[in-house]
Design goal:
Shape: elongated
Largest sheet: 7 strands, mixed
CATH architecture of the largest domain: 3-Layer(aba) Sandwich
CATH topology of the largest domain: Rossmann fold
Bound molecules: nicotinamide-adenine-dinucleotide
Helix content: 40-55%
Length: 511
Amino acid sequence: MARLVLVGLPGTGKSSLAHHLAPLLGVEALDTDDVVRERTGRDVAQWIREEGEPAFRLVEAEALEWALARDAVVATGGGVVTHERSRHLLAGQPVVWLDAAPDDLVERVDSGDRPLLGGDVAERLGRLYGERRALYAAVSTWRLSASRTLDDLGREVLNVVRSERAVHRVELAERGYDVVVSRGARHQLAGLVARRSPAARQVVVVTTKNLRTQPWWDIEAGLASHVIEVPDGEAAKSLSSLERLCESFAALGMSRRDVVVAVGGGAVCDLAGFAAAVYLRGVAVVHVATTLLAQVDAAIGGKTAVDLAAGKNLVGAFHQPLGVLCDLDVLETLPEREWRSGWGEVAKCALLERRTDLSREQVASLVNLAVALKARIVSSDEREGGERALLNYGHTLAHAIEAIALERDPDELRHGEAVGVGLAFATRLAVRLGRLEEGRIGEVDRYLESFGLSSALGSFSTDAVVDFMTRDKKAHHDLTFVLDGPRGVEVVAGVDPAVVAATIESMKGER
Ligand SMILES: NC(=O)c1ccc[n+]([C@@H]2O[C@H](COP(=O)([O-])OP(=O)(O)OC[C@H]3O[C@@H](n4cnc5c(N)ncnc54)[C@H](O)[C@@H]3O)[C@@H](O)[C@H]2O)c1
């Protein structure tokens, strides 16, 4: 199998890039045009003039097959994707689509013998782009902009190619999808949309102003796209934002075949996912998750919602995405507090999986651990009828203190920080109920601390917390917790309110 294949319009620099990258990867550079000449004694222009384009595409496909069997960086001819056999050969190969606007390429197309670019080059390039764009997208693993220096482009290609790529499958029959975790995963968007939604004519990207100013912002879906900005953070999750977003979809003439792409944290994914669930009774959505919390939790599993004055996430729907892209590169701009918020969910997953050997330096491993767990649980229990409830480990108390804190200061407690306290509480409650040894409290506290998470319960009225937990929509008017114990972590219903209150009180005495 080839190490890397480059596709794209003439002038995008495929050959130069292949020669630039091959020595860096320690392999040879091959150009399918050269392979055709060497194998047949005729060059591309001769083939097209003497035998016609269809005959050339056939020998080109043979040359491609020969090249793909080598450990090489393979630069392909611009029209290789127009031939079905070549597209078939490219399926499953690591393919980079070098993309550029046709106008940017006019100057870059060399003046060699190019029978398919005769006449007005700008007009021909524009037409070829229109005809081939969807084909490039469909065969591509990554789409990268060719409009930059060879060095910059080379660095970016090496970053995506060398990054370990994990693909986790959410198995839900025809609604199943992949969650990709890697550096540069955002560049897989065009390929994902082209393959999962081939009839789409446009993509509507939902994001925030803040995210569009990030240095990594180069989101391209390979189709006509529009970007809609929504408010940042929890403010996005309101019925009025939902209404504005759906009005924007309508103004853009979005059809059932088109695709919504959420680029953001959990708030953007929740809002855009819910809008996609209800607009035209359901359009497709892809999540490009940009916070740790969204990558390990919010973007996976199809739960979408907005808030009401009466509480968070009270109006929503289950709507599974076409795919989820978790790009580890974009986390580099994440503020410290948002990291901490994500670590709460990650620590929960590590505790559920009994994998407390991993430390916060091992970001990729931890994201993969959490994504794998969530994908597995959602696959077996999409609607939270059973095992999915285990993902609420630490959440009964977390939801209560989050809601109470929200009323006094929206900035007091991030979700993951609340989950950290919730995990500390669940451990103490399990010890009090005789399910765990006392020593487990210190172990869990130290593990949480290694992620910068505090086990300390802030200033909360015990009655208010117990009251909230009793009314928790998942508790069915009974005190239900997910607790560790001799049989592992499980759902425990009917816990005595006095024991719960005593546990909360005991945490107040702690520093
Ligand atoms: N649907 C679910 O299953 C599910 C699960 C858990 C949480 N949630 C929801 O997720 C929401 C919280 O999500 P969140 O913690 O991701 O917060 P968020 O979406 O509010 O994002 C937090 C902040 O980080 C910024 N940001 C995002 N990505 C960034 C990046 N790469 N670089 C720099 N800044 C970046 C955002 O602009 C925002 O200001 C809550 O509304 C919660 O209810 C949903």
